[in-house]
Every structure is written in C-alpha cells, then in structure tokens.
Predict the structure.
Amino acid sequence: LGVVLAFGMTARDLMLSSFAKAEDPNSGGRQMPGHFGQKKNRIVTGSSPVTTQVPHAVGIALAAKMEGKDIVSFVTFGEGSSNQGDFHEGANFAGVHKLPVILMCENNQYAISVPIEKQLACGKVSDRAIGYGMPGVTVDGNDPIEVYRVVKEAAERGRRGEGPSLIETVSYRLTPHSSDDDDSQYRSPEEVSEAKKIDSIITFGAYLKAVGIMDDQMEKQLNEEIMEIVNEATDYAENAPFANEDTLSKYVYAER
Ligand SMILES: Cc1ncc(C[n+]2csc(CCOP(=O)(O)OP(=O)(O)O)c2C)c(N)n1
Ligand SMILES: [Mg+2]
C-alpha cells in the first residue's frame, strides 16, 4: 500500500479495489485487493502466484536496457517468496546482464503460518545476493529514512549501468495473513504486542517529534486529515456501481 500510494495511487483508487467496483483502476473489480496495476502510474499488474513479479520486473529492466531508456524497475516480494524459483532465476538473469532492477524483499518474518526459521537455510535473504553478482543489504524496515537511503543508492547504481541490487527490509506482520488465518495457532499474542510497540507509525512519529519536525498538534491534525481522506474514499467506493454484466468477459485475454 505504501509503495503504490507513493507512486500516485489514491485512497479512493484503493477503496474502489477493496469494494470490487467497476471504477477500480487496478482491474475494474476483477482482482483481489493488493493486486495493484495502474498504467498512468507505471504500476504493472501482479499475478497471484507469488514471485512471478520478479521475472516480470527483470524483463522490464531488460527492455529498458535494450531500448536505452533511463528507467529502473522496482519490485517487492515477501521472504517466503524469496524461496521460489522465480526469485533465483530472475536475480541470476539480472545479475548476468547487469539490468537496472531493484529487488526488495519485505521480510515480515512469516509466510502465512511458516516462521522465518523454517524458510531459509542462510541467515538473511540478502546473503543470497553474492550468488547472483549483486550487492545485498538488510535494513530495518521500520526505519523509513534508512529504507529511502538504500533504495536511492540502488536506483543510482541501476541508472549508472552497474546492475541490480537486493534489499531486504525487516519488519513484522502485525495482523493474521488474511481473514481466513487464525494466527494464534502458530504465534503468541505477546510476540505480536511486542512488535506493535516498534511499528514505524509509532517509532517514526516519536523520531519526528524528537528532532522537532512534528508536535502533538501537528500529529493530531495529520491523523484527522488522513481519517477524512479514508472516510471520503470509503463512502465514494461503497456507493460506486459494480461492473455491468456485459463486461464480464472483458480483459480476460485482450480487448479489441
Ligand atoms: C506459487 C504460490 N504458492 C502459494 C501461494 C499461496 N500464498 C499466498 S501468500 C503466501 C505466503 C507468502 O509469504 P511471503 O512471501 O513471506 O509474503 P507475505 O505474505 O508475508 O508478505 C502463500 C503461500 C501463492 N499465492 N502462490
Ligand atoms: Mg512474509
């Protein structure tokens, strides 16, 4: 959500997707929420099988290199997804051909019910970078400034023609994987409540106050403004029409 909001998607776009309405820019209400795609903001739609997006991003970077375009493609995936073949094939191809792509693994320490210890034989996801001839870094995913710094560095590297980078951002999944998932079966409530204390909404807010950029009044105002945007987007999307039946077969293969 954070990434696509930064790329220009709006709260209204996201709510239209959640309510599966016709005006949803991601898929016209066809895909599950979270399957982002929006041409005007250059967000390429993702598929449901995890990690298919990595070869897609590498292919886009290859096209950019062949066409001499000054772009860097950016792709995210989970730490569970970093065990799929698609990650390794995509990373190897990008490394061999020095393609301008940033591979960002959002390590939230769980793949549905499987904890990180049962996912990786190496210590960190970023350890894998050396095997594919690219730099790999692990940063605190709850620290927005640190994440910004390493992504900026990776983008500059890509633009200079030096090839891909692997970034691992470590955070924690604060909710169950989905509404069908009972996370009390595989982790303790204490573990979750400890992680909530270091969520970046709290720690980054405290940092902004400590350095004198934000005060309580500004925080209150910001929260009220955000709430207003979210409420407006929710009302708009809830009242928007569903797709008409005669559009049922649209976008399955191609539009003529
Ligand atoms: C190829 C494939 N296998 C299984 C699934 C079912 N599935 C959806 S999300 C998920 C876990 C992914 O974990 P991770 O990559 O860590 O991402 P997270 O959800 O934690 O961000 C699984 C197994 C899938 N979508 N695709
Ligand atoms: Mg995960």
